Amino acid sequence: MTVLVDEIGALAAENVATILTNAPAQAWPKLVEGGWAALGADPDAELGIRGLQEIARTAGRYETATPLVPTLLAGRWFRPDPQTLASGVSVALPRGDEVVAPYITDTIVILDVQGNPLPVEPSGARREEFSHAMPLAVLDGPPADTALAAHHTVELHAVLAAVAVGCVDAVADRSVEWAQTREQFGRPIKAFQAVRHHLANLHIAREQAWTAAIACAHEPDTARMWSRQTCELATTAIELGIQVHGGVGFTEEVGLHHFLNHVLQIESLLGSAQ
Questions:
Q1: Under the GO molecular function aspect, what terms does this record hold (predicted)?
Q2: Is residue 12's pLDDT more than 80?
Q3: What CA–CA distance (Å, rounded) separates 174 from 241?
Q4: The whole model's pTM is what?
Q5: Which residue has the higher pLDDT, 22 or 147?
Q6: pLDDT digits (tens, 9 = 90+) for 178-232
Q7: Domain-located, residue 52
Q8: What is the CATH number of the domain that holds 192?
């Protein structure tokens, strides 16, 4: 396995970014129309786990909720039919004593860990929207088996860890822009050493988080440890970005908490499989 991103992964990540930037309200139909949602199920595409991580990191940079990440994983694992992929796919996963389906939508198809559709109506499932970008369906009457295959568990940790790093990317970009434009005492706050140190530490934590996320894919025996470290570093980085923004960093208008909540939701999901 290489640490380099395959060509199809880089191309897909670029197109996903374009769609999420230009048409967030129509993101999922456009991802389906472009064939990106079915990429994981296409053996000819040869999408590797590093390419999938690149796509996942890109998706994490946006507040828009789509089922792209679980659909790509489910396509890679179970090869659902095109109609199912177009609806969006999530997989029922354990979280403590509960079973949840992440990135839920009203039309999504929920599979068990063997790839079989569950008799669950997504629109009627109890929703948990702690994370705006990663809404969950809490399932009643959990499936008999919620234990993913070992190699699927590794890929789940690697890909969701990459999403967490994407969340940091978004906060880092906004924090740098804020430091360049926000003025205090007649000059941009980037001139102050405390702010510069926060931004530097944010960048260091982000790079360490990305290294840990890549390690998830390369060291399957310790993937859970690496994903935990990724989430911890991502949380630290985002909190630094919030501090750079001062008091407004906690407000709904700025919205940095959406990215923090996304990481915490990922951590709660992956942590249940430790």
A1: acyl-CoA dehydrogenase activity
A2: yes
A3: 8
A4: 0.94
A5: 22
A6: 999 887 887 887 878 898 999 999 999 999 999 999 999 999 999 999 999 999 9
A7: no
A8: 1.20.140.10
In a domain, 164, yes or no: yes
In the predicted structure, residue 4 carries a pLDDT above the cut 70: no
65, two tokens? 């909720």
**Tally of domains in the chain:** 1
| pLDDT for the residue 158 | 98
Alpha-carbon gap, residue 109 to 91, rounded angstroms: 8
Contact 243, 200 (CB under 8 A): no
Q: What angle do CA 99, 103, 249 make, to 5 degrees?
A: 110
Range list of H helices, 61-192: 68-78, 82-87, 150-181
For residue 25, tell me if it sits in a domain.
no
- Give the total residue count for the chain: 274
Alpha carbon of residue 6 to chain centroid:
19
Asked whether residue 166 is domain-assigned, the answer is yes
- Looking at this protein, which amino acid is placed at residue 136? L
